[in-house]
Amino acid sequence: MGVKLDHPVLLAEARVTIIDGLLASAVLVGITLNALIGWWWADPISALVIVAYSAGESVHAWPRP
């Protein structure tokens, strides 16, 4: 819908929704692998994925002089 309307806010919100879904999926995969297979390291790896994305967004949002 955002592409058809050429509306930048709708396009930005669509990107944010996709990213949020991917981050939630990373958490779900990590927890599931830990619970079902016993891969204790899968949950911390999913947390590192979220930290890496958050760090990138923080650098991007930081005001530049």
TrEMBL record:
The UniProt entry, under InterPro entries, shows: Cation_efflux_TMD_sf
Extract one GO cellular component term from the record. membrane
The record's annotation in SUPFAM superfamilies points to: Cation efflux protein transmembrane domain-like (SSF161111)
Alphabetically ordered keywords of this record? Membrane, Transmembrane, Transmembrane helix
Q: Does the keyword Transmembrane helix apply?
A: yes
Q: Which residues cross the membrane?
A: 21-42
Regarding the membrane, this protein is recorded as: Multi-pass membrane protein
Q: What is this protein called?
A: Cation transporter
Organism, scientific name: Baekduia soli
